[in-house]
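Work package 3, deliverable 3.1, input record:
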Amino acid sequence: MKDVRLDQIDEQMPASRVQLNSVGFAHESRVVLDGLSLDLAVTRLGVVGRNGSGKTTLARLLAGLVAPKTGSYELNGIDVARDRKAALGEVGILFQNPDHQIIFPTVLEEIAFGLTQLGRKKAEAEEGARAILQRFGKRHWETAYINTLSHGQKHLVCLMAIVAMAPRLLILDEPFAGLDIPTKAQLRRYLAHYTGNMIHITHDPADLDGYDQTVWLDRGQAREIGESSAVIAAYVTEMTRAGEADDIADLPG
Amino acid sequence: MISLTSPVRTRAHDWPAGAKLAGLCLATLGLFFSADPLVHLAALVAVLALYAAPGAQFLRTGLRSLWMLWPFVLVVAVFHLIDGSAGQGAVIVMRLVTAVALANLVTMTTRLSDMIAVVRWLTTPLRRLGLKTRALEIAMALVIRMTPVLLDKGAALTESWRARSPRRPNWRIVLPFTLLALDDADHISDALRARGGLVSPED
């Protein structure tokens, strides 16, 4: 850990403007996002909500992987679902499961892939990938095979692959699910050094330490938006109350 | 092919992938120009010497991955013994082992991205015709990357079955496994799209 030089890099990037205009999204007949409107300047934004509140759909939408079925979404004035080329510099996403994200069998190839996607030549991309490994103090991972890495290590590979592409906004979709306490703490430390903006989507408010704004998502709508401590306090109260009920019994429809 | 990786870094790792593949093609083709058992024995010994060159560890790993050829060797050998053409059988067996050993050698000492670069170069005429070859290149990477993942999923399904059944898992596991694989494919396509999809670097 001694040679991690994350703090030496460039200063914080300017805030990302996230504009959702009554966005609706449905899978078949099941409504997932229901007229969601947000207009925020994001540096660090938390999104909390229960399972099934539309968090993952919101993550995919914010990253431009899907377009809203109704309404519109622009990130810094760009329709990131349409203009994928411009989107690459604006937004990146870290998925819950690293096995869903890693495309190449070795660490260097995986990190270099994103850079070739940005139009770099192969040798240049590999040079950039090495520089990222260096910055994270993981030069010795270069030729490591993904299937020999631990779950936490795969997470870090995903993070490095995205940091290499340096998008202005990073979407995190429950990135710490299923990790043990030390691994979680270590990944948090790497994340904290990211100089881009972040939207961190989670069911666990403890993950949002240091996030100034938070959106509480409930049944596809923003139930509260505002200063984190207030929103999280209200969310925790409601979740504790809901925990005493038995809505797990409710079937859809 | 999936687990064909070298435990040590060899000099051959620094040779250009295209040259290694071209050499492999020529050598394999060459094996078909001779029916002399002595020539084939010499070729086999030469290849084994190549395996031994980077050290004992490399030799062990290499021979272990060649071991999977034994059923084929057995079938060919038994056929030719019954057929009474033992000499011919020996040539075929040696040719088979030499060719596969050479191919493994190239795979063990070449990074996947270099291999893909060769495929990209070879398919240049197709791109001239306006076909997109990026999908082919990424598909190669995905097969190598996802095979161990899918094997794990299959093992998990088998365990889940065995935890609740006294019988061995049978064909009924195929459908859920297929669905799992399709679900994974959905996620991977998201991941591809998140990083620019199938656009070629030059597009």
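Residues 131-194 of chain B form one domain.
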